[in-house]
Amino acid sequence: MQRFDGRKLRERREQEDRRREWLALQIDRSADTVALYEKNLVDPPGSILGVLADALGCSVADFYVEQAGAA
Q1: What residues are paired with 2 via a beta bridge?
Q2: CA 20 to 30 Å from 20, out of 29, 33, 34, 66?
Q3: Which SS3 state, helix, strand or coil, does residue 40 take?
Q4: Residue 31: CB partners within 8 Å, gap ≥ 6?
Q5: Is residue 54 part of a domain?
């Protein structure tokens, strides 16, 4: 099972040498909202994931990690 990982979003944003404020403008959200995504406090809605990926030149899958299932 995969889950959104805000650290992946932050890493990609930093690789592109972009500030949170820039990304916030691209997705029509606040920089504080981007911070919530990056800190895994809020998952971005599905409608925003594609916009994030487009803005950062990657795929939505790049923001996900494998999550171990419950035993």
Answers
A1: 66
A2: 66
A3: coil
A4: 19, 20, 21, 23, 24
A5: yes
The domain that holds 6 is classified in CATH as 1.10.260.40
Q: Could you tell me the CA-to-CA distances from 21 to 1, 15, 27, 34, 35 in Å, in that order?
A: 31, 15, 10, 8, 10
Position of tokens 């990690």? 65
pLDDT per residue as tens digits for the range 43-67: 999 999 999 999 999 999 999 999 8
List of E strands, the chain: 2-4, 64-66
Supply the Cα-derived Rg of the chain in whole angstroms.
12
pLDDT in tens, 3-36: 999 999 999 999 999 999 999 999 999 999 999 9
